[in-house]
Queue: 2 jobs
Job 1
Amino acid sequence: MRSKKLALPYAVWMAAFTLVPLILIITNSFQDSSGHFTFDNLYKAWEYREVFLYSLEIALVSTLICLLLAYPMSYMISRMSEKTQSIIIMLITVPMWMNFLLRLLGWVILLQNNGPIDTLLNLIGIDVQLKDNDGAVVLGMVYEYLPFMIMPLHTVMSKIDKSLIEAAQDLGSNGFNVFRKVVFPLSVPGIVSGITMVFVPSASTFLVAQYLGGNKKMIGDIIEQYFKSDQNTGSAIALCLMVVILLFIIITNQFGDEEAVGV
Amino acid sequence: MEQKSIVSLRNINVNFDGEVILNNIDLDIKDKEFITLLGPSGCGKTTTLRIIGGFLEPDSGDVYYDGNRINGTPPNKRNVNTVFQKYALFPHLNVFENVAFGLKLKKLPKAEIKEKVKKMLSIVDLKGYEKRSVSKLSGGQQQRVAIARALVCDPDIILLDEPLGALDLKLRKDMQIELKNIQKMTKKTFVYVTHDQEEALTMSDRVVVMNNGKVEQVGSPIDIYNEPANAFVADFIGEANILNATMIDDYKVRILGTEFECEDAGFGKMKPVDVVIRPEDIEVTTPEEGTISGIVVNSVFKGVHYEMEVKCNNCIILIHSTVSQNVGKKIGMKVTPYNIHIMNKLFPTADNELTVTVTSDNEEENTFSFEIEGNEVTVEGAHFPKDTVLNVTLPPSGISFAGEDEGDLTDVYIESVIWKGEYNEIIVESDERKWIMHSAQDEQVATYAPICFNFRDAKFEIVPPDTEDSDEI
């Protein structure tokens, strides 16, 4: 009973700032501006299906790139001495000490025409458009969310008992087989939570595409825009996004459970 | 019949961060024997095992397998399998998959793998457990999966790193017998690491007693128990009375001021030695009949025997006897010569001997100072002029442990602690040399402590400045 009492403040917090807004969003989605039940908002949301797909595509590509970058990196970090590990992990979080918007503006300055990178490339005779394309959006996303992929992967990998790796070697595994038969299966929970932690926020992010994609819009930007004028349509789009993300989480977690029992 | 050696270690040295872990280890492991590496924690036994397994490369020295040098061969290319300390079972695989791990890597046909795993699981008494998750097994069952996983690969050698350490006493005793039976049945060489002397004596064909990265003694359990090579081995294996004694002549030894007959010879005349008498080898007699007598100060019933402490001069002697004696009673004690075992002392001299140069002196206050390993020590009650070279004889009682940050020498390594009936005889190692000291307290070996010196009882002898060596002119 005592533990329940202690949980009360959190329950109140959750109710006030998660549950109630969630209910508001759901009810708003099915109301028009005068409070009557309607499906119109969802129809309006359907008009943005291409933006939806574009957002999911950008999020998937960014998540994949994050995974490809973070996985070998986390593996290498987890094999270093404890002291080096904590230093590197701290360095990885350093960019997060700064505001999201500032980091984004940093990239805008770096990539803009006649910016430092562009100037350098022009010097050696390469003239490309660095900003205002999908590549720049993905770059911004990967930069933004890479730490969220590294953290869970590193946590899981550094918890893999060294003696398991030695046992695998002892039983005849070469380096590749140690990885394939022990390290990889045991790191699946880290992959699952890493993917979730990167995909979910990047699918719903806003401003990145506006700043780096040349005023392109992701679904997050649309929601932001709508909430300024028409909360009902904004809610309906947000609801759709939530459902998609929920489905995605359910699918990835299924995969994780199956692969990594008892970890 | 002389068995051939399957693994030989030659002059193996290992250092970690400037600390010596293994110091010139030489060891031959014979084919199909059950050999145990026994020693306190930090003695280097696990490191030795890891070298045989290929998980660690020695800084110098050679590892031979069946006559071929195998330094640098990785673990997966050695015909050796290990049972790890905490089993190291793969949590994502079930019992069958764990045991089959090595066989699958060998790319054996599926039917054969199934057959072999099944057979091995029945050997370790886990028939029908194939589909169980390893994390749901008890400690003893996990242990047996780990053994099956190693055995099924059919290696020549199985390395076992304290495999029973995590089990409770009853299970441990059962597993000891089971392991020995498995070893006999499978006819494999077992190299077993433990700090439990009873375990070592129960299971092994041969025991290797290790301490401070060195092999102290190799022999059968009976040899190790009855004929320990030195006080460390005697102290570590079983219970023992280890006493200071003097070898008067061949077959005659003086213990606690009384002359005893013994069966050892060749130590020289009037030579200080250590003597071991096992508590069960002391015969209780009437005070008149005994070679030596004492007062019973404590008696505890231990099940099979009574454990009695008998005070004899200032020394406490331990006796195991099936007959209890009343506390306070005077009894006599007799030991047959065969049961008195004489050993060379661990420390070459009875006192600490060092040569120092006086760095400063004060005639008025009758003091002088010199340096020991860069630390200045001041002696009161004696005076020698500056730059005099002195031979100092410091008795063991002149060194004591100091509090944190107070010692003359900080962080000396406690190498051995042997209870000598009235005090602990402790050997410590500083940066440049070893010291012998006495202490009433029990200290933990393989730890560091500060010590301080007291030169009140020390003897000083001036080394004449003109002669090269310190002999008299």
Note: The domain at 48-259 of chain A is CATH 1.10.3720.10 (MetI-like fold).
Job 2
Amino acid sequence: MTHTLKDGGQVLNVGMLARVEGEGGMHIEIKDRTVVDVQLNIFEPPRFYEGFLRGRHYTEPPDITARICGICPVAYQSASTEAMEVICGVQTTDAIQTMRRLLYCGEWIESHALHIFMLHAPDFLGYESVLEMAEIHGDVVQMALRLKKCGNDLMETVGGRAIHPVNVRVGGFYRMPALADLMALRPALERGLEDALAAVQLVSTFDFPDMEQDYTYVSLRHPDHYPLERGAEVVASTGVRFPVAEIPLHVEEFHVAHSNALHARFDGEPFFVGPLARYTLNFDQLSPRCQEAALSAGLTETCRNPFKSIIVRCVELAYAFEEALRIIDGWTDGHAPSVPTWPRAGEGVGASEAPRGTIWHRYRVNDKGVIEDAQIVPPTSQNQSSIEMDLRTAAQQWVDLDDHALTHRCEAAIRNYDPCISCATHFLDLRVQRS
Amino acid sequence: MSAPDVIVVGVGSPDRGDDAVGAAVASRVDDRYGGRVRVVTREDPTALVQLWEGARVVIVVDAVASGRTPGTVRVIEAGADAPPLPLRAFAATGRGGTHTFGLAGAVALARALGTLPARVVVVGVEAATFAYGPMSPQVSASIGAAAAAVEAELAREGIEATTCA
């Protein structure tokens, strides 16, 4: 909706930014064809999770923090269990870590399949929503639903529930899934891998706006594999690298007046977490098949066009299927589901790669096992500055488009991040003001 | 013998107050029908689109928020044989995020895909709360009435319960 102001300027309002998770607002101000202000307004009230974790037992965060989000609960569970295990001073077994990775594959499959096809693809195919897309591209939507179901089934088999898994605990799991139940998933996962590889090629044919950004990329990194459920260290495109425990020394949260979600800086600068960062900093850890799929889709080993994140998500989707199959094929029954833990006073940091990017938790626990302080830093809040940077670049680059087309382009620029405002605190009313 | 092309599905999160009513009613129906009809629960509405593909009759029990008195049970025809739901009912679903993709979104998506069963009977129970915690007393007290509405639909399909109410 366009309003004409008394001074001759224009304000463009979109009631709710579509196809993102949660609610918030956007303000873009243009004077004399120059973008002068960009704000991502997250007006959803704070959810105070960190506050009500204080005073709870150290065993509770995996179940409590999983409720923050229905799309990425495993990210919260993985980061919180890792932090608590650091505090308790326990090492889990390889089998437990492997099963955590399998559960995480389920979350990546669910989340990436949803975002790629239901939320993001309509931008490139020119539809308002997946409902309109389904009438013409029914086969693609059917494929998306099949892929999503694979993720749900994996989450249910390993996590006990497709949403908010209940089988995760500090120290491991309550019970290990039976090999027979995992093997039953195999045929669908094999088909899922084929579908995901086809999806890489399909989305690579989309028409991508020409925009490259000089982001500081930050991601977890692990010597053995592409980062999902944990990393051995944090790496940045600036060349900085450090252990996970030192994240709070490098990432500083701060409040801005126009957002109820905390912004963040990495060594004093805006930064970017998520698929593009993971891919660019860990290309060498992808499987040969996924590397080949990425390169044949026209990507290089680095990707700085945020609109091409949809291709990277498809590559990661294929990787998650490959990993799930690899883990199931190597699995045997009889592993202990958990290692015992005892409370110990201390502070610990845990981090994992949520579908949207690095998430980290820091807890301080007393010798009775009671949480005295908690800090939860999800990817969307860390990405707010980069989102605003992209909006500024996109609005300026395409300033001569009409309001409708410019709004659409800006909305798409936000959706590149698969933002979860529900996590950052929850999202979006878009305003472009011209004068 | 189970009717292969009839499904009863309870939708909703068991943690979210009255959203648990779908699963509660499904459980009640399952107890009374002893395998004569396929009864399932789903938390994720996108899962419905695949669940009901190929079925002829689907009875969906879900909590609804329409401004009526909490506990009110309504039966709405939403299948391919019925007229589409009013656009307002899923205005937010297609354009909204997946957090807003509900039953109406699943119906609209299946209709677009051409896989919506001939009959989708929505047994909606008006909710008082979707906050974390137990069901409201009004909705708890309506489980029997909602189960009876499901059973009336099953009876129309010639499927009878194995135990008395």
Note: Residues 49-382 of chain A form a domain with the Cytochrome-c3 Hydrogenase; chain B fold (CATH 1.10.645.10).
